[in-house]
Amino acid sequence: MARVPKRDTAPELAVRRAAHALRYFVDRPPLRGVRRRADLVFPRLRIAVFVDGCFWHGCPCHGNRPRHNGDWWREKIERNRRRDQDTDRRLAETGWTVVRAWEHDDPAAVAATIAAEVIRARSAPSRLSLKA
Length: 132
Description:
Layout lengths: L9 H9 L6 E4 L9 E5 L4 E6 L1 H4 L12 H24 L3 E6 L4 H17 L9
Parallel strand pairs: 3-4
Antiparallel strand pairs: 1-2, 2-3
């Protein structure tokens, strides 16, 4: 598992290429104090994008279960799914928008979803109140 890349996977790179016109940070923790990193982060707009691998995050369409050491892998993938849900909850509680995509999703469609969220966030009224 040490050889499995944590960033710059082929699906992530495809999404980044498709969304190249948008300004974002790569492989960055959206929240301080939480040891979780998003694949693309728009800190000012509070948008975090995750490109999840089908195997590692238990895709209902493409996730497969190894036959060897199946119980361990089942628990490992379930822990990943619970961590993803906890991450989504923590980000939502602090006003972040979370975009999750599977590695098999069309990169152009994912980029279009990200662009729509960026446009929505930019057109939303400011979260900061100005004092007179």
